[in-house]
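Q: Structure tokens for this one, please.
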Amino acid sequence: MHAVEKIIARAAGKNELRTGEIINCKVDLAGINDLYLQTLRSFYEMGGKKVHDPQKVVMFLDHYAPASTIMQADNQKQFREFCRAQGIELLMDINEGVCHQILADKGLVCPGMLVVVTDSHTTTHGAFGAFSTGVGATDLAIVLMTGQLWFRVPEVIRIHLEGRLGQGVYAKDVILKVIGALGADYGVYRAVEFTGPLLARLSVSERMVLCNMTTEMGAKTAYIQPDEVTLDFLQGKARQKYAVVATDPGYLYAQEHTFDITSLNPQVAAPHSVDNVHDIAEYLGKPVHQAFLGTCTGGRVDDLAVAARILKGRHVSSRTRFVVVPASKGVLLEAMARGYIQTLVEAGATLVTPSCAACLGTHQGILAPGETCITASSRNFPGRMGHASAEIFVASPASVAAAAMEGIIADPAKYL
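A: Here is the predicted structure, written as tokens:
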């Protein structure tokens, strides 16, 4: 069996299983964000009275942090009251940041775990060797009541990455290339595993980008085999014992794809689909009204570091606003200690509370009609970050920083 299959087999109490089989699994960690008040409503509507295991539940107030409407404030109030009533201690309030980065910062996700969160980018935690996936409000309510959820065993796709990253090229460019080649619906209800020599040269932060963006090709989950990089990251962070799971020798993947990224240039996903991917050279010089750096995809310390490197001693273009959103409080504190935040603010960036911010198009940097934004976040469909007529280009943090400085889409390589 594949490692992904072994993880869900363990959670189901089975020795073996087959692709397509529907099984009930015990969930190791369940997360709810503040978009999903319906989870609590469904819990009570289905007769729920007491959460099955409060120690395995995390509540995140991250999408509306801080609340910008009375409705959002009331929703968050109800989440806080639910946590107090149910004995849920892992309440991550508006000061903590985005759910996926919080889970990494606090060592709450480890190899071998089965994790569900009411957020589609839960695939991020495949970077730690976990089976992690997004679920809806009703599914999460069932987990609150029973500690279990049903799954269909996904087939596994292998994406093998060879070569070395060139100047100005990052994991975001790699995954955009993959999505552009395979399509936005290629991975629907499939597990996507990344392998190959490139991975050994990627930090945990960059691995999280690869796994995070598999959602944009429809994947059910993503996976990277834990190695020394993974275990070094978890050392001192992990909150529980964990088991690194290995795929059996000779395992046959449903499909395999190899990408040699040696000659890869910086990439952009152009409007209005994340698989509309091109070399950045095709859009050089296009004016941008906003550059957005942040969220669970592009707001980690590494991302702020490269932006600070590009902008140090320089200034954001007078034609462009540069919105910077650290992914978590932990990221913000480390970036402050390293001087990245001061560099970016001095260069003209607008610093926003660690949160999802404009990524979901509700506050803190939304776009006006006809505006163009280059973003290190994950999606660019119409209306994602504001008005439906706005254009969104998805790119690496380096490309975002370069565009912020020049006021146009620019190749970051010349600044690195």
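A few notes: The chain has two domains: 3-258, 267-415. The first helix runs from residue 3 to 12.
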